[in-house]
Design brief:
This protein has about 500 residues and is α/β, with parallel strands linked by helices. The chain has a domain at about 340-495: Orthogonal Bundle (Isoleucyl-tRNA Synthetase, Domain 1). It contains 19 helices and 18 strands. The protein has helices at about 20-35, 50-60, 65-80, 95-110, 165-175, 185-195, 225-230, 230-235, 245-250, 260-275, 315-320, 320-330, 345-375, 385-390, 395-400, 405-425, 430, 440-460, 465-475, and strands at about 5, 10, 40-50, 90, 115-125, 130, 150-160, 180, 200, 205, 220, 255-260, 285, 290, 300, 340, 375, 495. Strands 1, 2, 3, 4, 8, 12 and 13 form a seven-stranded parallel sheet that branches. Strands 6-5-7-9 form a four-stranded antiparallel sheet. A three-stranded mixed sheet has the order 15-14-16, covered by helices on one side.
């Protein structure tokens, strides 16, 4: 079946930071992996450009909301190729085709009987663009996410009848326990649902920066409903007017989101789709926060634009390259959990794992084949002790990435990287090369190493697309199917290698 994966669309009230890179990289790993398996993949990312936070930020900077959106949306767009993110489309919620489709879908929701007029009064966070329930209010009547005072708002607007979908959502969660992943996020969403659903504002009368309500031009749609619909609307115009991809790719296979927007994606979003008569996504995977380490050794706090504790992904890429950043973010924090990230932690991973474990393994293997066999080996049987540890690895990685277990799958691959390094020390090819009677054994050891390095490289390609492409070329594997998952199995074949520059030079 086609594989459709999305990131959240990123808010343009400020420039990108490492948290945005984290989500984009995670989605890209899954998209690249599915392409390796021969699946038809569509990968969507983009920017969320309407709403009060953008209007406030623009006013503070003395520009129009569209000028601010244009500037920061371009920065997010520019970040993707720097990260080696292979998205198929980049949507902006100011795209005219998106606006038109939002109006069409929400008009359908109204015609289906799930929109009514009313007055709303409640506590509101302008940075979240969200009205808070009593259970969501932090100490001192503050936003628990942004730590700012909430404002009391009263508005005459149109409501979405969320409460009408209490039973349908309960049935969805009961019948599909993997609808929200990982499990502790499922429990969190289920707990919110168990508290009982209240109808929510669909429109805003006081704000002009948004998608105009077609049946009442004095209002705009609440930014969350405009934004959520991007996952659906993009398929209608990503390939222009000539090709609508909706029937091919909808519903989405995976929405990858951060935990701070769980309520909107796991409660509001499926309810809205049901109200419009559309299928709900297969999975919503909720990842945790990247934290900045605290000085007292505690857990730290969320990286956040508003708190000024962000790490600039552009600078990290300039200093170390995109593969190093991709590896660190996939490796350091278990995907789905919160976890601290730091420059010192990055340097440790870079030096010990990328430069030493993987880079040095690749360089040694190729250098020994060049030195002892002039870069060529005939098809040779491999060491069964090592091939036994490589057999089934591709299937294990596939099963884990089918569950979006990005960090766990990477650890499985890395176990084999470490095992290959031990194999070099155990077999000591430099010693075998001194004894002509050990020529056949040397061939077997070198061929086994080549095969092991090749297999882990195929499986690492979604994580390290640049470095693995260079290494596969040095290993003599540049065919169109050499990076397919089906190639990640031991198979004796002639070998011809070329010299390799260090993949991850030590700093």
């Amino acid at each position: 079946m086609p594989f459709y994966i999305t990131t959240p669309i990123y808010y343009v009230n400020a420039a990108p930071h490492l948290g945005h890179a984290y989500t984009a990289i995670a989605a890209d790993v899954l998209a690249r992996h599915q392409r390796q398996r021969g699946e038809d993949v569509f990968f969507l990312t983009g920017t969320d450009e309407h709403g009060e936070p953008v209007a406030i930020a623009a006013e503070e900077q003395g520009v129009t909301p569209l000028e601010l959106a244009d500037k920061n949306s371009q920065r997010f767009r520019d970040l993707m190729p720097l990260l080696e993110v292979s998205n198929d489309f980049f949507i902006r919620t100011t795209d005219p085709e998106h606006v038109r489709r939002v109006q069409e879908v929400l008009t359908r929701v109204r015609e289906n009987g799930f929109v009514y007029e009313g007055t709303y009064e409640g506590w509101y966070c302008p940075r979240c663009a969200d009205f808070k329930t009593e259970a969501e209010i932090g100490p001192g009547n503050t936003c628990p996410i942004h730590k700012i005072p909430l404002t009391r708002e009263r508005e005459d607007n149109y409501f979405f009848e969320l409460s009408a979908f209490q039973g349908d959502l309960e049935k969805l969660f009961d019948e599909r326990p993997d609808f929200v992943m990982p499990r502790h996020r499922y429990n969190e969403a289920r707990s919110f649902l168990a508290g009982g659903l209240q109808d929510v504002s669909l429109t805003r009368p006081k704000l002009r920066w948004g998608v105009e309500v077609p049946w009442d031009r004095s209002q705009v749609f609440y930014v969350w409903f405009d934004a959520l619909l991007n996952y659906y609307t993009a398929l209608g115009f990503a390939r222009g007017q000539q090709q609508d991809l909706t029937h091919k790719f909808w519903p989405a296979t995976y929405h990858i989101i951060g935990k701070d927007i769980l309520k909107f994606h796991t409660i509001y979003w499926p309810a809205l789709l049901m109200a419009a008569g559309l299928a709900v996504p297969e999975h919503v995977f909720v990842h945790g926060f990247l934290l900045t380490p605290s000085e007292d050794g505690g857990e730290g706090e969320k990286m956040s634009k508003s708190r000024g504790n962000v790490i600039d992904p552009f600078q990290v890429i300039e200093d170390y390259g995109p593969d190093a950043l991709r590896f660190y973010l996939a490796r350091e924090v278990v995907f789905g959990q919160d976890g601290p990230v730091s420059e010192s932690g990055f340097l440790t991973r870079y030096e010990t794992e990328l430069a030493n474990d993987y880079g040095n393994l690749a360089s040694r293997t190729i250098a020994m084949i060049l030195r002892y066999r002039d870069g060529r080996l005939p098809a040779t049987e491999h060491d069964p002790e090592l091939t036994a540890e490589l057999d089934g690895l591709a299937e294990t990685v596939c099963a884990q990435l089918d569950r979006a277990e990005i960090t766990t799958a990477l650890e499985e691959i890395w176990k084999r990287v470490r095992r290959l390094n031990r194999y070099v020390e155990e077999r000591a090819p430099w010693q075998l090369a001194k004894d002509p009677e050990q020529a056949a054994e040397l061939d077997r050891v070198l061929a086994t190493l080549h095969e092991g390095v090749r297999i882990v490289t195929v499986l690492l390609a979604p994580y390290l697309p640049g470095a693995t492409a260079k290494l596969m070329a040095a290993l003599g594997r540049t065919g169109p199917d050499d990076l397919a998952i089906s190639a990640a199995r031991c198979a004796p074949a002639p070998i011809e290698v070329q010299a390799l520059e260090p993949l991850f030079p030590k700093r």
